[in-house]
Design brief:
single chain, 366 residues, Rossmann fold, nine-stranded mixed beta sheet, five-stranded parallel beta sheet, 15 helices, 25% strand
């Protein structure tokens, strides 16, 4: 019987839909804004697929693990750590060290970049780790692309082998103010199956890249319709669209424009839903994360399944430069609503220049 350590950061990702761009140190504010915890649901989506696989879990009490195991009918587990309330980063580090001492073959955790960093602090490269994605950004390369893919990686960990994967340290205060300050924190050992584990984020700054952004912006602004709401996603490519309109973008947030004017800056999910009630004609413009390929579900959780359904999937517009697409062989969506993700289909048209588009394969692991 394989022994696997399992832990959950119950508050991971709560800052996403409410526009906080992270939850580190922002739990109280996230609750005040109406954030709803979802990490436990993400973890349950993985564990339900592992029920009956002959795995002996070691875990934490309560919402950090035991509650999720019991909810999906898994009874073979041992509690090695009892966290306080609310749970803290110290609980994650203590639990991971206890798992290591218990001789686990893998540590499966659910959270975001901060949780990955805490697990790495505790165990380094002494045991393989794997993340179930539940954070806001997840620029580290230790995460499965979605909960079903995490289950497949756990099930096939012995045959998959391991690779070095970047653990990234993101300055969330800088991120909230619109600046991406990321540094390499270390390399963890991660089970790897192609198309099931996400890559690290890449940034492209070549001269041709800037020209391509200008061409994309020129085309999008040319075809903008009157009396139509445009939800503009995060990133430098989408920011160029607003800059061409002589508007100041929120580089790492969601801005909304209509008839050449900003009607909401750095909008959260609640604001987007309210605007869509007032202005039913809408387009959502997003760009995938470089190399990772995520169109939805990484850094833009404000564009939630409810927002997407209200706007209409036919009104989702994806933009990316040719260089980014060349380094991104596959696209992914991980909105948190698997049925909605499948409705998007098996490919997406991506605008990559002035009146130029490419069709890219969209993968749905699991």
């Amino acid at each position: 019987m394989r022994r696997i350590g399992f832990l959950v950061n119950p508050i991971a990702g709560m800052g996403g839909a409410v526009g906080l761009k992270g939850t580190d140190g922002q739990f109280t504010e996230a609750l005040r804004r109406g954030a709803i915890p979802h990490a436990c649901d993400r973890a349950a989506g993985t564990l339900a697929l592992l029920r009956g696989d002959g795995i002996e879990f070691v875990t934490c009490a309560g919402a950090m693990g035991e509650d999720i195991l019991r909810s999906v009918g898994i009874t073979e587990y041992t509690v090695l750590h009892r966290p306080g309330e609310p749970t803290t980063a110290a609980d994650t580090r203590t639990a991971a060290r206890a798992f290591l001492d218990a001789g686990v073959r893998l540590i499966l955790f659910c959270g975001g970049d901060g949780t990955a960093r805490d697990v790495y602090d505790a165990v380094g490269r002494e045991v393989p780790v794997l993340g179930i994605p539940a954070g806001v950004k997840m620029y580290s390369a230790v995460f499965a692309v979605n909960p079903p893919a995490a289950a497949e990686l756990v099930r096939r960990a012995g045959e998959a082998g391991c690779r070095d994967a970047e653990v990234m340290d993101i300055d969330e205060e800088a991120y909230r103010s619109g600046h991406l300050a990321a540094r390499l924190y270390g390399y963890a050992c991660v089970p790897s199956i192609p198309e099931r584990i996400q890559g690290g984020k890449q940034v492209f700054e070549q001269q041709d890249e800037e020209r391509a952004k200008d061409e994309i912006a020129a085309f999008i602004t040319e075809i903008m319709l009157p009396e139509t709401l445009y939800v503009i996603g995060a990133g430098s490519t989408t920011a160029r669209i607003l800059e061409r309109m002589d508007l100041v973008p929120t580089l790492l947030g969601i801005d909304v424009v209509r008839d050449g004017k900003i009607v909401a800056r750095d909008a959260d999910e609640r604001t987007l839903l309210s605007l869509l009630d007032d202005y039913p004609r809408a387009k959502i413009v997003v760009s995938p994360i470089g190399a990772q390929g995520f169109v939805l579900g990484r850094g833009n959780q404000q564009i939630s399944p409810a927002v997407l359904r209200k706007a209409g999937l036919q009104n989702l517009v994806v933009v990316a430069t040719p260089a980014k697409l060349a380094a991104t062989p596959l696209l992914y969506v991980d909105s948190g609503d698997a049925a909605l993700d499948r409705e998007i289909g098996d490919s997406l048209q991506v605008i990559s220049g002035y009146r130029i588009a490419q069709r890219k394969r969209l993968l749905h692991p699991g």
